[in-house]
Amino acid sequence: MRPWLAEYVQRDITDKELIAMAWMIGFWLGDGHRSGAVFSLNSTDADLNQFLKEQAELWGMTYRYVKQIEPVGNLCANAYLHTYTNGIRNLNKANPLVDTLKGLKFYAAGVIKRPKNFPDFVQTEEIIVREALLAGLLDADGSTSIYRSQISMRIATVYPPLRDGAMLAARSLGLNVSVSHAAAKSFETYNAQEVWNLFITPGSNIERFFGIIDRCGLERRRDMPVYPKKKTDA
Q1: How far apart are CA 40 and CA 76, in angstroms?
Q2: How do beta strands 226-227 and 150-157 pair?
Q3: The domain that contains 50 carries what CATH number?
Q4: Known Gene3D superfamilies for this protein (predicted)?
């Protein structure tokens, strides 16, 4: 990823810029729109939304927050990452994130609006890229916990390419990964999609595990809840 980005901007890429782009890609894979640099947000996640703004600004993009008229579950707002040309606001024109998604084929066949993809090269990327990308995906569609002293993270996805790519990327970091499947179901008021859950534990690679956790923008991902809850005296 670093060589491609360096060629794109015609200069050397700092680690901070590389991590920011990898995190935005992971977050887009989870909560991004296939139409481009647009994200669905939970309006109560102020820390995460600010983190997205900061990562975008590192790449010269401006962040615009718009509340949805008809919220979908907890996703109550959209964020748009813009660039400007002669004072005119653009969405996907000369946009570093969108150009990277296309150029590195995080879009299927590198074509905008095509299905999301998790290219194989990620498995051999720099460690900071793999950690940051998985952190972005964890911020979007995951959770972390400590259950009976066992630390773990969970990433959920409805897309088989993301399931396979995230599983292989995590395993390439030496982490333990198991996958469970929940079939699509119809309920009285809504339909639940087919979903895969990746359960990731550190095994003997605690440094890599926390390399992902520490790169998350969402505080509750970093501050893992402990289960079962301790009983308090009445």
Answers
A1: 7
A2: unpaired
A3: 3.10.28.10
A4: Homing endonucleases
**What DSSP string describes 70-106?**
EEETTEEEEEEEEEEETTEEESSTT-HHHHHHHHTTS
DSSP-based three-state secondary structure for 7: helix
For the question of whether the overall pTM of this predicted structure is more than 0.90, the answer is: yes
Please check whether residues 145 and 103 belong to one and the same domain. no
Integer Cα distance of 166 and 29 in angstroms: 10
Burial code (b: 16+ CB inside 10 Å, e: under 16) for 68-105 equals: eeeeeeeebbbbbbbbeeeeeeeebeebbbbbbbbebb
Q: Return the structure tokens found at 220.
A: 């509750």
pLDDT tens sequence across 160-182: 999 999 999 999 999 999 999 99
